[in-house]
Amino acid sequence: MSHMQSVPEFDQQTALAKEAELAGVPPEPGKRKKIATGEGRLAFFLVTPTVILLALIVGYPIVRAIISSFQKDPGLNPATGFFNQGGQFAGFENYKHWLLEQCPKPGGGTAKCPPGSLASQFWASVGFTLGVTIVAVALETVLGMIMALMMHKAFKGRGVIRAAILIPWAIPTAVSAKLWQVIYAPDGLADKVAGWFGISNIQWNEKWPARFAIVFTDTWKTTPFMALLILAGLQGIPDELYESAKVDGASAWQRFWRITLPLVKPALAVALIFRSLDTLRMFDLPYILTGGANGTATLSILVVKQIQSGQNSASALSTITFIFIFACAFLLVKALGASIMPKPAAKGRK
Amino acid sequence: MTSSVQAPPTTTGGGEVVFEQPKRGFPWSTVGSYASLVIILVWCLAPFYWMVVMAFRKPEYALDTTLYPNHLTLSNFKYAFNTTNNQFGRALVNGVIIGVAVTALAMAVGVFAAYAMARLEFRFKYLILGAVLAASMFPGVAILTPLFQLFSNWGWLGTYQGLIVPQVSGALPLAVFILTSFFTDMPWELEQAARVDGATPGQAFRLVILPLAAPALFTCAILIFLGVWNEFLLSNTLYNGNNNVAPPTVALAKFTAGPHVIPYTQTMAAGLIIVIPLVIVVLLCQRRIVSGLTAGGVKG
């Protein structure tokens, strides 16, 4: 269907040559020629609005954020006691504020930020964001795989399953956070279900139960989505492969490891990367479910809380956040050897 | 989707019951099939079922955990639309206004870029595609902080445009990706025939591709609208306390019944009102949505 599935590589050179012929240009290699055709000019006009709009809405704000992250926030100058308008060049002060958890000390200089301040939560929140991502995405991948295999095999009720599986995906995260808040209420449904398994007296407002609640809720909502993406990959595997493996005496387990997994890997890798990116910027769920209390503040929550009390400092934190997320994405892409770029030109031309 | 339906259920099991083609004796395959069906249905629907049960339960029984519906009432829904505490009806209208505006803007701009990506050869194509991908990968907070500053200078905080424009940042890349994928999959021959008959690329696009692509455009519009309807992070800060422009997710997060009361059942009723249209759309268009999701493969 798309980049999710492996597509036979196409001879692009021939396709290009044919196209050039159609456009009335002698088939000659070289980029300059392509641009000279009407096609290049048309493409320029078609693509420009998108590029301009994204540059204005994404590019410009991000550049602005990077600039203001190096400026002072307005506030009392602790050294002099005078009010400072803010905006002066601050060097790496805002970054140090977060990364080294340094706060200005009365009388000048800096000291370790007091517990409870936002900066003092920075590294804890990096750890929590990363931890949730690793645990939740791993759970979602394994459960999603199992669910996809079930769906792939189920010959009855496929339509029903597909409809059901879209429900958790369709419920907005904000609504699902409120829903699970009711489920995790004191003496609520979660306590009742836990009681069936002999677990009682869970303090949902303590650190680890609260974290568990967030991971579980996220897994509930996104596992079906993961399963859908994996299922699309499964459906691209020809049945003959399994047949011949079976004839050769491969066990079900071997068929899974040697056929299913390698062939579904490209689809799986892309799903995994996009899910990780999404979880690393997680905001709605913990913000509504716990308000970021009890050790459940993600980096996005810290940024939103900081916006009200110092935007240049918030800019530094949001810059740190996106660099952190891009670094994780880069590592994931390298580690999984995945191609996340769509390959529009490589197919469909015959 | 269709080819594998008749295929024998031979595949493997990643930890689940392995069922072979039924031989004689106990029908493990059928049992396994139904068991998977039940497991998946319970996983997906149980919490949603609880939301429905709670939404129709009297507020006094909010902590009653009886699993079947009881103490039925419609008062929660009346409460949700009661304007003294919340402006929930207004929020729904806002959600539609913002959703339609973002979808229309993203589609109108994205459809042309997607056509160029799928059908035309030009320099920097992959660079531009990469830039669009990168734009969609920035976390919301990365643009939220500077936009908050800019909008407070321009007086855009708590306005419709202040809620619409930022969301194009997510919607436009999604539109470009989904539509690029759809255009790439469309039969190339028709367009070629039009070109041979003397149509310019622009005419081929207008007269051949767009009419054919109508279902794809519709799918893409649904996915974008759902995405905007779900959005919370940007709106929650940029609405800046102005309930007249707050979308439903923000209104729900702020849902209140006065101090010291946690309005569980009323919140569930409000949540259900947000979700029901989505569920209907999803059930009606499930095939399209699934194909759109796997085509875009981008985000949920």
Would you summarize the structure shown here?
The complex is a heterodimer of chains A (350) and B (300). Chain A is 65% helix and 3% strand.
Describe this structure in words.
- Chain A has 3 domains: 12-68, no CATH class; 75-114, no CATH class; 121-346, Orthogonal Bundle (MetI-like fold).
- In chain A, 65% of the residues lie in helices and 3% in strands.
- Chain A has helices at residues 12-22, 31-36, 38-68, 93-99, 122-153, 158-170, 173-183, 189-196, 207-234, 239-247, 252-280, 284-289, 299-307, 311-336; strands at 75-76, 83-84, 102-104, 110-112.
- In chain A, the strands form 2 sheets. In chain A, strands 1-2 form a two-stranded antiparallel sheet.
- Chain A is globular.
- Mean pLDDT of chain A is 80; it is low at 1-36 and 345-350.
- Helix content of chain B is 68%, strand content 0%.
- Chain B is built from 12 helices and no strands.
- The chains are: A mainly alpha (350), B mainly alpha (300).
- At the A-B interface, α1, α2, α3, α5 and α6 of A face α1, α3, α4, α5 and α6 of B.
What distinguishing features does this structure have?
heterodimer, A: 350 residues, mainly alpha, MetI-like fold, 3 domains, two-stranded antiparallel sheet, 65% helix, B: 300 residues, 68% helix, disordered N terminus
